[in-house]
Amino acid sequence: MARVLYMGLPFPAEPQKTAPSSSSSSSPSKPLKLPHRTCSTNISIPSTAKGGGNRLLKTQKLNSEVSPHRAVSAVRLMRIELGGAFADLLNEKGKGSGENEMGYVQRTLGFRTRELNHHDLRLVTDIVGGTIRWRRYLDHLISSLCHDKDISSMEPLLLQILRIGFYEIVKLDMPPYAVVDENVKLAKFALRPGAGNMVNGILRKLVVLKEKESLPLPKVEGDDRAQARALATLYSHPVWMVRRWTKYLGQEEAIKLMIWNNSEPSFSLRANRARGFSRDDLVTQLNALKVPHKLSPHLDEFVRIKTGLQIIIQAGLLKKGLCSVQDESAGLVVSVVDPQPGETIIDCCAAPGGKTLYMASHLSGQGKVFAIDVNSGRLRILKETAKLHQVDGVITAIHADLRTLPDSGQLKSNKVLLDAPCSGLGVLSKRADLRWNKNLEDMEQLKELQDELLDAASKLVKPGGVLVYSTCSIDPEENDDRVVAFLARHSDFHIDPVDRYVPPDFETSSGFFFSNPVKHSLDGSFAARLVRDL
Ligand SMILES: C[S@@+](CC[C@H](N)C(=O)[O-])C[C@H]1O[C@@H](n2cnc3c(N)ncnc32)[C@H](O)[C@@H]1O
Questions:
Q1: What is the pLDDT of residues 362-408, one digit of tens each?
Q2: Which among 325, 357, 374, 479 is the best mutation to test ligand 1's pocket, defined by most ligand atoms within 8 Å of the CB?
Q3: Burial class (CB in 10 A: 0-12, 13-18, 19+), 126
Q4: Would you say the CB of residue 349 lies under 6 angstroms from ligand 1?
Q5: Most buried by CB count within 10 Å: which residue of 193, 299, 355, 441?
Q6: Euclidean distance between CA atoms 115 and 93, whole angstroms
């Protein structure tokens, strides 16, 4: 089955990670066995046995009492947290993940709900994304209101239901007592009546505190470390990120960046000129679908949307290869490469192919993009999408580790792109879960890998040719610092300022391309043009 690209990742036909494997071998009607732990509060919780028999009776049954989007959100959050799946997988309704998703609901909760409509799917996306983004903040409030402060020992499903309720009340400002009722129902049916009582008690405490404007939140005071901890809770990021951004940007800018990361992401679509589909054609389709949009001021194939992605997916525009979801910051990196018909371009870390396809579409059928990647699965997606986009004729996929390509190989070009593996710190608004999956050691390892890949990519550049180094990170240690270190090791390369390729606003004082999420309202990304002496 062909897949379409979404933010550099494929829309999965199947969920990428499943709940623990024990579930997959059990019968579909058997609820997922989860570790049963309780949060000890001053509210008593009946034992697990209570209601356990009921649960079996409930299997295969349609539960029309709980709100479907909350049930699905709770299960999706469980899968993300337990299985590490990406939070921003799209809700593909109908065949495929939609049906499978209800299978997960059945197995996890012991009942299914009615199928989700457009409106429900939108709510699931908002709740799941928001609950993940605000996890540290929500957990702080939950543990403040829970008798047992250590919520890591709380029953996982119960914790997700509480997070949803807290998020809806505190961040979505939804009518509080409706939220309490709905989440209590979910806890009662999915767990047991006692769990419902507990959710009721804690959410009601929250409502009272919110009404009195006295939520138990930390103050930004004390030494740097204490302030970073408080900010990390208030803006829901890991402490190490706050410390790093405060060091590089100052506290005020660091806060703006965190606010951006917590805001609802907007997307852009690229019309695929290789299929003869222009931006005007795309605009006509969006008007017909009643999807509000704006033209990109920077790139003439791109259109911005804030909502309506589901509608576009269901209209089949992505599956037909007429357009892709691609951030303008990625498009501007391609502008820095400046692909022209007839050229040979080597894309060193190409998969799943967002930039490869865009570059290929600029060759107008003449020239070649060699797309190298070490990951065969991602490379397969690139090949499938290239066919769909009708640019497969100019793309040659090479499955290899860039670092072990033979020095004496024939593969050399005047244009080489190294879109290196990076922390992704520039795309935290779209990748809600990413902030929780990274740590400082990852950064150190990535920097080493980026240096090795830069050295390897430089060998593919012909004299007089250009190497474009790019990342989707905003971290200077992955960007400017890597370039400076590279130039110190390779005196035969020099910086070619990007001013001829991107609007002036995106050029740094060192001549690099940089899109700043706070300043440009795009994903953060970086690119440097490095020319090899003749
Ligand atoms: C940031 S992603 C590239 C995204 C891609 N350019 C796009 O626009 O869709 C980095 C890629 O580098 C690949 N990679 C990591 N180490 C590599 C290596 N040693 N050799 C080749 N590719 C590598 C990863 O598999 C991953 O697909």
A1: 999 999 999 999 999 999 999 999 999 999 999 999 999 999 987 76
A2: 374
A3: middle
A4: yes
A5: 355
A6: 9
Residues 409, 500, single domain; the answer is yes
Pocket flag, ligand 1, residue 399 (CB < 6 Å): no
- The length of the chain in residues reads 534
Q: Which of 181, 211, 241 is the last residue of a domain?
A: 211
- Domain span at residue 36 reads 7-211
Which tokens go with 87?
């939070």
336 and 369 assigned to the same domain = yes
Asked if 525 and 330 count as a contact pair (C-beta separation under 8 A), the reply is yes
Pocket test of ligand 1: the residue of 349, 358, 359, 380 to mutate, having most ligand atoms within 8 Å of its CB, is 349
Query: What CATH number is associated with residue 273?
Result: 3.30.70.1170
* Phi, psi at 481, each rounded to 5°: -65, -35
What is this structure's pTM? 0.85
**Pairing mode of beta strands 344-347, 294-295:** unpaired
Dist. CA 362 → ligand 1 center (Å)? 21
Which atom, in ligand 1's list, is nearest to the CA of 375?
25
Active site residues: 472
26 with 136, same domain: the answer is yes
Q: Give dist(CA 218, CA 273) in Å, integer.
A: 52
